[in-house]
Design brief:
Blueprint (H helix, E strand, L loop, with lengths): L2 H16 L4 H7 L4 H20 L6 E5 L5 H14 L2 E7 L9 H10 L1 E2 L7 H7 L6 H13 L4 H12 L4 H11 L6 H10 L13 H18 L4 E7 L9 H14 L11 E8 L2 H8 L2 H12 L2 H19 L1 E3 L5 H19 L17 H17 L39
Parallel strand pairs: 1-5, 1-6, 2-4, 4-5
Antiparallel strand pairs: 2-3
Helix pairs in contact: 1-2, 1-16, 1-17, 5-11, 7-11, 8-9, 8-10, 12-14, 12-15, 14-15, 16-17
Length: 424
Amino acid sequence: MNFDEQVSNRRAIEALRNGVPNRDAVLALGCNQPDIEDKFREKLQNVQQAVVTGGNNEGMMIAGDFGSGKSHLLEYLMHLALEKNFVCSKIVISKETPLFDPAKLYRAAVGAAFVPGKRGNAMTEIATALHFNSQPYADLYRWVHTKSGLNARFAATLFLFERMPNDPEVSNRIIRFWSGDKIGTGEIKRYLKACREQVTYKLDNISAKELAWQSFKFASRLIIAADYAGWVLLIDEAELIGRYSLLQRAKSYGELARWMGKLEDSTYPGLTTVFAITEDFQSIILVGNDDFEKVPGKLRAKGTESDLLLASQAERGMRVIQNESIRLKSPDSEALNQTYEKIRAIHAKAYEWTPSHVPTIERMTTTRMRQYVKGWITEWDLKRLDKTYKPDIEVEQIKQDYTEDKELEVETEETSDNSNEKSL
């Protein structure tokens, strides 16, 4: 065994030990959710069809208990999509990346994006892969200038990127804008003036929220024009929604409905999304916390048009969680035995020894895959240091905390490009 192979095996063991799946662990263990894998492959095919027809591609939502393998599955699906030439972004919902803020979500998606076969900055790789004389680029240019309905910033910056390829400062500035950075109308007009196109594009003000939604549409088309199959968003730990305030939960449910393809007036051809959420979210938050009634009820009580719209969107998002979540299949004895042997072999190669067979953790319906894996690895780690040692490993259940957290009360980026006023 060469050094690189040993390092790869050690990376896999470290990832499994800490419950944070990486490429090495996923490639070594594969996936024991064939039904979800088949459905995901079907979604990838639908993405390409939606680009041709202009239709929408509905997303997927997977549900499982803490430690059941949701993050491992998302990592596995990402590698499937990369093999199919899709750009992939794995995003973890957090204080810095709240689901209810599309501007922050977009920047996180671009920042976390992987481009098949590339290692550099994702948007730079995508932009530099454009061939201005190709049919895919011609389709993008025609779409953004005539059919997209997007703010003129996108058409103008695409024009400038093609017209000024020998100006690295301008090219870099445009790529940063496509990555989610702000760009003022005055700056774009200055570049257009240098190209004698200052009257062609009417640059209207736009809110950060609307700009982010439009950026997702533009970026997915840009990805296809660069000869990739599409864009896959894999969004982990969506259960953090349960710790937001009521209004932020409402916005998050609405955004979840958007990315799951449930809003008729909001389509994103070329893009598909997979969410991962805890299985008890429905019983604890939607039913136990009464979000089904409280969230739309309080919004409708306000009576404004925007609140009534948000109430409807939030209801759709909650219905997705209730009715469309695909639950992870619990590992049966055969799957557990196969996983045990795979990890034992990885551990052997990682540390160049022969791990003894260890007493398996009691197999119960409440025992999660992460508990089995961590228990096996912990015992092998200890026995590798002292073959006579007999560890006593205790398994403790960890429950998701859904307590409302005031620290998650972050402002959304709703100001317009040239104003400090809040968008309504």
